[in-house]
Amino acid sequence: MRSGILTIMKKELARFFGDKRMVVGVLLPGILVYIGYSFMGGAMGSAFGVDEDYTPTIQAVNLPESMEVLLPQTGFAIMEASDGEAAKEAITAQELDLLLEFPEGFDGDVAAYEASSGAPAPNVEVYYNSASTNSSFAYRAVVELMDAYESQMVNKFDVNAGGEGYDLATAEDTTGFFFAMMMPMLLMMFLYSGCAAVAPESIAGEKERGTIATMLITPIRRSDVALGKILALALISMISAASSTVGTVLALPKMMGGMTDEVSADIYGVQDYLLLAAVIFSTVLVLVTLIAVISALAKTIKEAQTYVMPVMLVVMGLGITGMFGGGASQELARYCIPLYNSVQCMIGVFSFSVLPAGIAVTVGVNAAVTILGVFVLAKMFNSEKIIFAR
Fold first, then answer.
1. N or C: which end of the chain has fewer CB within 10 A?
2. What is the C-alpha to C-alpha distance for residues 289 and 267, in angstroms, rounded to an integer?
3. SS3 98
4. CB 175 within 8 A of CB 252
5. The whole model's pTM is what?
6. Are 388 and 304 in contact (CB under 8 A)?
7. Cα angle: 160, vertex 165, 170; to 5 degrees
8. Which residue in 215, 201, 200, 365 sits closest to 293, CA to CA?
C-alpha cells in the first residue's frame, strides 16, 4: 500500500479516535440496541404473558357432569355462577376471567345429536375479555380443550394424537429461519447508519471547514486521498456496525421470550462468521464510497446528510426483501446487483444455504464498485468547482 494512502488513513483514524465524543457516538448505538431490545422483550413478555402461579377465575352456568370431569384438566377451578349477567359484568370489569354458559340438558342433547340431521348442534357460550391477558389465556386453554373433546366425539380417527414429536424442525432450522428474516434488514440499517455517521463529516465537513484544500495541495495523489479516506471510513463504520450487530444478536433471544432456547447465534461456526465478515466489509466499502461521492457534492455537513437520505430508503428497501421469498437466490446474476447481492449473501449465511459462487461474485462486484467510486471521487477532488464550492 502506498505511503500516501497510509498517511490519509492515519489522519482519519487519529481524528476519529482522538475525539471521545465520536467514539462514544459510534459505540453507543450497539449499547442502546441491546438495552432497547431487551426492554422490549421484557415488556412484551409482561404484556402478553401470564404469571406461572396465576390461576384464572372461571364460572359456569348449567355445568354438565361431562364438563365437571373435563374442564379440571386445564388446572383451573370451575365455580357455579349464581347470576350469569352479573358474571358478564365482572368480566367486563376484569374481576372475573371467564364465563361458560351451557344449555340445560347439555349432555343429553349432545348424546342425541346427529350431525346428518342438519339441526343446530348444542352450543356452549364462552365469554371473556380480550383486553385482559389473563382472560384471553383462560379462554384459549378452555376452548382448545373443549374443541379437542368435541373432535373425539365426532371424528373417527385422530391426527397427531400425542401432540409432541411430530415437528421435525431442528434448532438450526428455527434459528436460521428467524435470523435470515430479521438480520439482513437490521445489518443493512446498521451498516448504513455507521457510514452515514462518519462519511459526510469527513468529506463535506472538511470542505465546510476549508481543511480539504490544504490536504489537496500536498504531493499525495488525489486517488490516494480518496482511497485512504474510504478505507479509514470503512474501518470506522465497521466498528459501529459491529457494535450494533453484537447488541442485536445478544438481545434477540430476550426479545423472543419463550423462544429463548430455540433462537441462539451459537449454532453458527467460524466459517459462517468469516463469510459474513467478508460480505459486510465489501458492503461497507460500497456504502462509504457512495456516501463519500454524494457528500463531495455538498457544501456543508447538513446538506450532505440531506443528500444521502434517499440512500437510506434504498438500503432499507433492499433489507426488507430478506423478509420475503424462500431463502437466498440461487441465480448468480442477482449477485451482480450492488447492495442487493449483500442481502442475498446474508440470507444465505444465516439460513445455512450459502451459494459460494454468489459470495465470490458479491465481493468482486462490491470491490469493482468501490474502485469506480474511488476514481470518481478522485476526479471530484481535482475539480476546483466542486472542492471550493460555497
1. C
2. 34
3. strand
4. no
5. 0.64
6. no
7. 130
8. 200
